[in-house]
Amino acid sequence: MSYSYQIIGFNKHSGSVLVKYHYDGDHIATYNVDIPLDESGLFIVGEQLDRHISGMFPLGVLDRMSKLKAGIPNADVIQSLVVQPDKENDK
User: Fold this and answer.
1) How far from chain centre, in Å, is Cα 79?
2) Higher pLDDT pick, 58 / 47
3) How far apart are CA 26 and CA 69, in angstroms?
4) Which of the residues 9, 26, 55, 85 could staple to 18 if both were Cys, CB 3.0 to 4.6 A apart?
């Protein structure tokens, strides 16, 4: 099992990148990650940037995904709360 990421966007005005994380080839999350500045006031790059982005990997999401995949015994309670929209009331 392995994870990877792709930078799919960059906003130079906010100094952030949009990062799409994958686990075992499946997309699991997309996060906006602020890029730190180095001592010269430049964006970190290369190995520093890779470590920063990798360090932001949502490990808690993996635990949650495992639990959801195994099944949550009271999921039917939440499902019973779902109200289907009434097309008449949507007008």
Assistant:
1) 25
2) 47
3) 14
4) 9
Q: How confident is the model at residue 65 (pLDDT cuts 50, 70, 90)?
A: confident
DSSP structural state of residue 85: P
**How many whole angstroms separate alpha carbon 27 and alpha carbon 37?**
28
The DSSP 8-state label assigned to residue 2 in this structure reads: -
User: Structure pTM?
Assistant: 0.68
Q: 3-state secondary structure string, 23-75?
A: ECCEEEEEEEEECCECCCCCECCHHHHHHHHHHCCCHHHHHHHHHHHHCCCCH
- State yes or no: pLDDT of 91 exceeds 80: no
DSSP letter at 76 equals H
CB 19 within 8 A of CB 31: yes
Gap between the Cα atoms of 60 and 17, Å rounded? 21
Q: Where are the domains of the chain?
A: 3-79
